[in-house]
Write a structure and sequence with these properties.
By secondary structure, this protein is mainly alpha-helical. The protein has four helices and two strands. Strands 1-2 form a two-stranded parallel sheet. The relative contact order is 0.16.
Length: 98
């Protein structure tokens, strides 16, 4: 994961801008029921591991939601149903409760 990747480049720019502020980075999950073939590929898993490793070195709250929410919480491959959003709130609450 280098700045030759535009996503990494812009993430680093945003984090530099946020320096000294409480910042969250949330990796949204994927509907594993719908995308099972894709999420089981070694390259997909390697990319997730690389993202986790990159984020471990950042001064942010990083939440990886990959594989956390069940397929029924999604209306498609990535967008959540109203119930899914309620479950997402429950997952995120421990990170924000006072």
């Amino acid at each position: 994961m280098t700045e030759n990747n535009w996503d990494v480049y812009f993430l680093n720019k945003m984090l530099a801008h946020q320096q000294g502020k409480k910042t969250w980075v949330i990796l949204s999950g994927t509907n594993h029921d719908l995308m099972n073939e894709a999420v089981e590929k070694p390259g997909y898993k390697a990319n997730l591991a690389a993202i986790d490793a990159m984020m471990a070195g950042k001064d942010v709250t990083y939440v990886n939601l990959e594989g956390v929410l069940p397929g029924d919480d999604f209306s498609d491959h990535t967008h959540m149903t109203p119930e899914g959003n309620a479950n997402l709130a429950d997952v995120l609450w421990p990170y924000i409760k006072p």
